Structure formats: C-alpha cells, structure tokens
Amino acid sequence: MRKSLALVALSLCVTAVSHASYELALMVTNGNKINRYDPVSQISLGSFGLNSLGYYSYPSITLDAANPEQVAVLNGDGAVRRFDYSTGQQAASFTTGVNPYYGNGVLNITGLSNGNFVINGFPSLALDQRSRIFSGMGTQLADMLPFGTAYQCQSSTQAADGYIYSLIRYGSGSSYTYYTFVYDSSGGFLGWNSIGSSSSYDTYGSISSSGNKIIVGPAASSSGYAFASSPFGIGQSFNTVNFGGYASSGWTNMVRGHDGRVHVVQSDYNGTNYTNRWYTYDPLNGLMTLNHQIPGNEYISSIALVVAPEPGSLLALGLGGFLLLRRRK
C-alpha cells in the first residue's frame, strides 16, 4: 500500500512539473486560508495556513525578499506571519507593535526589495491612517506622512526604478482627489503625481507597476471600473487604460507578474457566492483583457505571485501529500 501511495505522489509531482507555468498565484480567501493556483493551466494546487492567518478576516499577503521561499501575511491583529509557500509550514513571525490595526479601513502590506515592508492601516481604533516602513524583524523604520493623516494611503508598490509609489486619497466634502506619492526605498518623500478627482471614495484603491509604468485601479468597481497608467517619475500624467471585457462590479486586487504585465483578480458577489475573474494588463498596448474565470467561489482578499516552484519544491508538495496519506493510514 505504501509503495502504491509513493507512486501516486511521484506521478502527481511529475504531472505538476510538466504542466507548471512560470508563476504561481497565492490567494488569500475568506475561508481563512491561502490557495495555490496556476493561472496558466488554471488548476488549483492545494492550500495552506488554514485558521493560522490571525484573528481578523481578510489579511494581506506579499512576497518576502529576504526569504524568497516565503510569503508574509499581515493580519488586523498587527502581526505579520510568514509561511513557506511550498510546504505550507509557518515560519518566523513578528508584530508591528500596533495592536490592532482598525479593521474597517485600509489594511495591506508590500514587500520591498531590501527585505523591509510598507504597511498601511489604521492603528488602534482611531481614524488615523498610517503608512509605515518596518524591518523584517518588526522594527519601525519610517513614518510616511508628508502632509498629515488626511492624505490616506490606499496601497503601495515598489517599481522597477526602486521607488515606492503609494496611492493616496484626499477627501474634501463629497469629492475625493487621488494622487501617487513617490518615496525612496527608505521612505523619504520625493514628490507626487495627480490622478484626478471623483465623487466616489473607491474609484481608485489598488496600485501596481508594469514595464516602466505605474497602474492604478479601483478598490471596488461597483462605482464604475477605472484604471489609469502613467510613466515612472514625478509630475507625470495618467491616461485611461483600454479594456477588453472588464466586469462592472466586484473587488479588485492587482499584482505585478514576472512577465512584465500586471494581473488583476476581481471578486464579484452575486448575493450567494463570489465569481472570480483573472485579467491581464499589457503595458505595451495599454489593454486590459479577460483571461479566464478562476475556479471556486470564495472571496479573494489579497494575492501574491511567485516564480513557479522548481521540481524540488513541487516534489515537496507531492511528498507532503503522500506523508499525510501515510499518516492517515
């Protein structure tokens, strides 16, 4: 029996290696777990972290440059938990010292190339939005508030030029003005770009980069889907992104792929379940196109993309499943 199980595990590994794409999506769902997903083959590759992501719902996930085999997950309890995405095992974690981040506001984490993290959230229970840089050990290194807390950071990304671009919303009465603030990798403010104004607080809520462009998108496209892009730098103008079938409702996550494109995941709620769609933005033609519908009906709250596991990592996944089966026997 054990020999048969071993052969099955090995067969699964060989199949996975032969069909794996160059990227693996790690998607946090409202099932309080992280799903592995191959967006090219459109197949699920198991999940990990079940009920281990922290007390609050909808945590945020990012890559960890200092530990490339791991991802970091920020929860509303103020803790950042690391997981080995191949084995699913939890690794070293740290706390931001702010407990909790207020759950009714923006909450996200962005890994930087130097191993630090940009964290956006509402400390304590005050409506005092903060954007801060923490080391990989949890030490606060910078407070990114060049013009005070009225300019609320919705999300951040580090572009290929090494700078941090933060999507900012400033509310005045019933009008909201959107900007990108530009920082160096240490959190030093360099300048800003104006995106435009809207009567909706969720017109823009996500940011990423592709090629030599910054791209911003909606937090929730129920108010009308809006994507715009601009070149890197300061004092740049944003232009509307063209579409190829983007749905008019849902919540949006954006992530930069290793192929130079931005991938957009949209979760659309129909009153019972969620329909999840995968879109791709190509900076060369400025077009956003629908690729496919993601299997499953859970809400996807955050996403990270890693280079697809090497055969050894996939073997670990297969052997992990084999050992689980063996334990049950």
Output the keywords.
globular; single chain; 329 residues; five-stranded mixed beta sheet; four-stranded antiparallel beta sheet; 11% helix; mainly beta; disordered N terminus; disordered C terminus
Describe the fold and architecture.
By secondary structure, this protein is mainly β. Helix content is 11%, strand content 45%. It is built from two helices and 25 strands. It has helices at 2-19, 311-328; strands spanning 23-29, 33-38, 43-48, 60-63, 70-74, 79-84, 94-95, 108-111, 117-121, 130-134, 140-143, 151-158, 164-172, 175-183, 189-198, 206-210, 213-217, 228-231, 239-240, 242-244, 251-256, 262-269, 274-282, 287-294, 300-307. The strands form six sheets. Strands 20-24-23-22-21 form a five-stranded mixed beta sheet, with no helix packed on it. A four-stranded antiparallel beta sheet has the order 3-2-1-25, with no helix packed on it. A four-stranded antiparallel beta sheet has the order 4-5-6-7, with no helix packed on it. The longest helix has 18 residues, at 2-19. It is globular. The model is unreliable at 2-20 and 318-329 (pLDDT under 50).
Condensed summary:
With 329 residues, the protein is mainly β. Helices cover 11% and strands 45% of the residues.
Secondary structure layout:
Layout: H1 2-19, E1 23-29, E2 33-38, E3 43-48, E4 60-63, E5 70-74, E6 79-84, E7 94-95, E8 108-111, E9 117-121, E10 130-134, E11 140-143, E12 151-158, E13 164-172, E14 175-183, E15 189-198, E16 206-210, E17 213-217, E18 228-231, E19 239-240, E20 242-244, E21 251-256, E22 262-269, E23 274-282, E24 287-294, E25 300-307, H2 311-328
Parallel strand pairs: 20-24
Antiparallel strand pairs: 1-2, 1-25, 2-3, 4-5, 5-6, 6-7, 8-9, 9-10, 10-11, 12-13, 13-14, 14-15, 16-17, 17-18, 18-19, 21-22, 22-23, 23-24
